[in-house]
Amino acid sequence: MLFPVIFLSCVSVSSGAQTYTQQTFTESSVLNISSCPITYYGQQYEQLYVNITSGNVTVCFNGFFSPGAGGDCIVVGSMDVQEFTFETNLHPSSFDQNLIRRYLRTIQNSLECYIEIAFSHVSVLLYHELNLTSAPFTVLLQIMLETQVGGSTVNTIHTQTYLDISGCRHSGQMYRPRKVISSDPQTCVRLTCNETAALYTSSCGPLERCQGNGICVLDSTCTVTGPTIIDVHGQINSIQDRCAYSLFSTPSLPDFRVLGNFEDRRRTDVSFLDSVTLRVDGHYIHLEQGGRVQLDDSTLTLSSSSQLENGVQLSKDQTGVTAKLSLSNLTISVFFDGDTAQIRLERPAGSSVEGLCGNSSRSLSDLRLPEYSSTSCEMQYSEPADSTINCTSVTERCSLLKKAPFSSCNSDIDPEPYITACTNTLCKYPAVDGLNCQFLKAYARACSLHNHTLDGWTLKTGCSSEAFCQNRTCSDHEFCGEKTVGGDTRCFCRAIFASKYQANNSLGDPTVCKQNSASVTLVGCLLEDKDVDYSVLHLNDPTCRGQADELTHMVTFSFNSSNSCGAVVMSNNSQVIYKNAIMTENSSSIITRHDHVYIDFSCVQTQPDIKTATFRIRDSSVIRHLTSGVWDYTLTMKAFTDAGRTRAVESSTELQLNQKIWVELKTDGLDGNWVVVVTDSCWATDQPPANSTPRYNLIINGCANPADQTVQVVGNGKGTSNYFSFNMFEFTGGSGEVFLHCKVHLCPKRNNCVPTCPAGDRRRRSVSSKYEGEAFISMAWTR
């Protein structure tokens, strides 16, 4: 590039090593400068038109000077000039170059040549006075000079100077270096005359996008698909466990983070992105399988129209769910289709991106989020290789990303990370559940974010742009997959969850036995693995069906005291066993295509341990809380002075010998549909211990003592309470205190629990089944 600099001088002197030519002219002339063409304000010329008219001098580049002609000229004021000298120097010295740079610091290019036009008049006097005999030129003083472009004055000079005549031309106009000629804020396209006086068109870079306000921002995409993260720099990382990780965060926004949650599917040793969580100002937006979106604990209903939730624009279509928000100087868009997440970031150049999307060089342990993960998420599993997988075929399939129509995007989006992610996963995991298209679809969408339309890619690959398993919601222990390749979908058990049942060849959890009920819960996805429809299963009673939980897909079968559902009650002295079974309903068809199911289960209940207590009758009543096994109840012994048991004996009540009293034994906390209370025996002693002597029996083997005609027993073995009556007495020669003791037990109501007391001997002939253990309760009175 040549220096476009004006030298104004009157004397030219040889500097020894320079090579130049010199001519003297006494009339207007056209000069050939093709050996050293001059760029005058952006226009290069190879001829000079020098006028000497009436002592005035003009140097023009596009024709002799004529006022109003609109030429590119240098017009020198009146000098009474009669001749001029023209010199071309093709090999300037370093001194020349340094001198020019000293006065014109904006010029950085090398000096290749220069042209000098010298006018002589009074120059000899000035030459000697300045004593610049070693200089290549002498500067004239007191001369007015104009530079004109298109006839318009650009510069006017009144003193000695070096003048930079570099510039640019555009649409007939001249522009100085570093001048913006035009700028479109919508496209960020800017035309400038740059520092080297060249027209330069600038726009956003390959990773940038115009915001529509003249500002370019970095536009980058992070893709998370399967176990692989392809960060904004195109580097890859792989997750081997089932933990939550930070995908994106930035120091400038401490209250915002994007998390990725990874889980297993058909194999225990391969993890997949399962959901994406956005934490925004203390709220959590969960993007889950099937297009389900939750805000904290609430499920949102979305459509293709944006819905604003806590500053986040949420929308959903057949391809997946998109969450978009603008925070400070960051715009972020998170797309999730249930398998692949793509995080698009628009941010200022130089801004920091942290998390797996920003810096794959950080260790996974630094980016793992224990507070969002299960305690066992880091446990590693191993399984034998799948011998049905042909890795060569897999590689060919994944390498389609290098072929048309994908190849049209290869220059902007490197396909290699996607190919690596594809082969690493599918050489280990079967190409089911949409995986055969998942990585191709992820690349196609990344291309679309950079305005690449890959026409016909779905047709060529046999894929669909729609989200896999859209609108099918599975529980936490399930994932959505294909029943057959390319066929219908359903929820499958995750491999690790299913393994604990498969180890025991079980379809569900152990029986849950409670005081008055029993239940068994089966795993819905395990039933589907056996091709069993839970709706055809029932208990012994065909009307008792399983209840499916809509969220967990667990199926529960239960019975209780109100409805035993055909349960069979058995006893073996110390235990009562309730047995039932889950079975497939009988079919009238002569064929069936489903496995027959028969699962029996049972509950064993025992009676509480022995409990004893003593009190004086004037304390009114005694209550004992009894707990043993599944039973948790209270037993109350209370005395009354009337048959209706409305007037309780209080501490101030005076009782007379031979006065009839009624004693009630009552329980609270038992289910009368299941059990009844049987009073086995009651007796009196004159000392607190129940086994002391003398002893007087009131009830023997559940029946009134035949030797005491005042004793009557009512309701024994019929419900959760009973009572008896007798006439007051005292021990002969005793202290005047009488201690009353009773022994009771619980009996399954389905059995015959009422003691048989014939009128003759007033004893029962047989003993009903009872729970292991008995309860004792005692009271005392003083005459």
Automatic annotation (TrEMBL):
Residues 512-764 form the ZP domain. Residues 1-16 form the signal peptide. Keywords: Disulfide bond, Signal. Residues 220-392 form the VWFD domain. PROSITE patterns: VWFD, ZP_2. It comes from the Eukaryota. This is ZP domain-containing protein. The lineage of its organism: Eukaryota, Metazoa, Chordata, Craniata, Vertebrata.
